[in-house]
Amino acid sequence: MVLPRYITNFDTQELPWRVCDYLVIGSGIAGLYSALKASAHGRVILLTKKKVADSNTEYAQGGIAAAIDEDDSPDLHLEDTMEAGAGLCNMEAVEVLVNEGPQRVKELIELGANFDRIGNELALTREGAHSRRRILHARGDATGEEIRRALAAQIRQEALVEVKENCFVVDLLTIHNRCLGALVMDSEGRLEVYYSKVVILATGGAGQLYKNTTNPEVATGDGMAFAYRAGVELMDMEFVQFHPTALALDGAPSFLISEAVRGEGAVLRNGRGERFMTNYHPLAELAPRDIVTRAIIKEMESTGSSRTYLDLTHLDEGLVSRRFPNISATCARYGLDLAKEWISVAPSAHYMMGGVRTSLYGETNITGFYACGEAACLGVHGANRLASNSLLDGLVFGDRIIRRSLDYVKEQQEPQPVDLHYDKLLSPLQLDTGEIKGRIQDLMWDKVGIIRSGEGIQQALSCFIEMGDLHFHQSMGVE
């Protein structure tokens, strides 16, 4: 099947248009931070398909990793990152992350992010595969929301940043391997064109491709999809991280139970009530996420149970409620007392290590088009992201995009409308998107999930090709 270049017919000469210096797509930490940094150098429009608060950043509980403690170092952070990534990380990218990360975190604090403290010192915790306590957190287990709040507050004060909510980017507009901007649909279904000198992709991950996921509804991977249709290279798409501990209760969402819970001493128990992680890895519950996830699956199979349990009952009750207020409140809504009862948990799709291939400065193979955050990939996470490196990733490489693009922006003339049109789609599709989404999620979970086989992946691929061919032929008016 040959993908159509665009997924809707349009004519730029018949559409309303806007211009800017930087067009930022996405409102998680990568998008907000990039927009804020870009505002010092030009006019910025930030597009988000729902509300600014709707991103994975808001759901980041554990924290942000940085080697800022006197007993820590970037070299130790690098070693831990490489170990978690199964040795498949891009060493040069990891060096950038761990060495520039502390300064970006300090800048975040200067921008108003209030991290938890013990006295005057930043409170640091430990998560899986970290050899030191280097995780900064906020409001106990609401780190992502606090960072989003601080950045959004700064964005609102910037006169050169315009935030457009409920705007869905349909496709990138490109001519001769150069990105000119984007075709965008507003909340009323009307198409608009946004022309820009630089376009920055920060649309996050694709967790909603799976039946069970910790990701919000907006994490559908559409940013990677429209980039791919424009000829942008993707890489490492097979590397999907499944978080070991999501709440597993009938009628409850796959709510993330942060790795920081295990960092404070919680243990995992199988269906027979036995602690088991000591049998799988020297770090036990703090082993890398992929190891813990596979261990849970193995224990489920050996005990004949669909659940494992997270046990905090041996921890101080005051510590639990103080350190994890949001997790405690969510569990309480479903009748669970985190400090007194074992919590039923199971793995859930969590993070995309793969994405749009970029350089160390966020550059892609399309001139004027950059990417950062979860939608991007330069190999910094390898096959398995180290806990709490994701927020740091968005900051470090978002900053590098702005630094690298400065000369390019200065050299470019004011964006002008171009004559670009597409009229090859003859038949509007009448699709049951709910049914299609359900089929995709089931296939991905069953065949392209935690435990995979060549046969299962081929079966999934055949189904997707069949679905794609059917819808493509319908759109082209072919019986």
Structural commentary:
There is one protein chain. With 479 residues, the protein is of the alpha/beta class. It is 33% helix and 19% strand. The chain has twelve helices and 21 strands. It has helices spanning 29-38, 74-84, 91-110, 143-157, 222-229, 259-263, 289-303, 317-323, 325-333, 390-411, 433-447, 454-475, and strands at residues 10-11, 17-25, 44-47, 64-65, 117-118, 121-122, 124-125, 135-136, 161-164, 168-175, 178-185, 191-201, 234-235, 240-247, 267-269, 308-311, 343-352, 355-357, 369-371, 376-377, 421-422. The strands form six sheets. Strands 2, 3, 9, 10, 11, 12 and 19 form a seven-stranded mixed sheet that branches. The chain has a four-stranded antiparallel sheet with strand order 14-17-16-15, covered by helices on one side. Strand 2, helix 1 (29-38) and strand 3 form a beta-alpha-beta unit. The longest helix has 22 residues, at 390-411. The two termini are 15 Å apart. The mean pLDDT is 93.
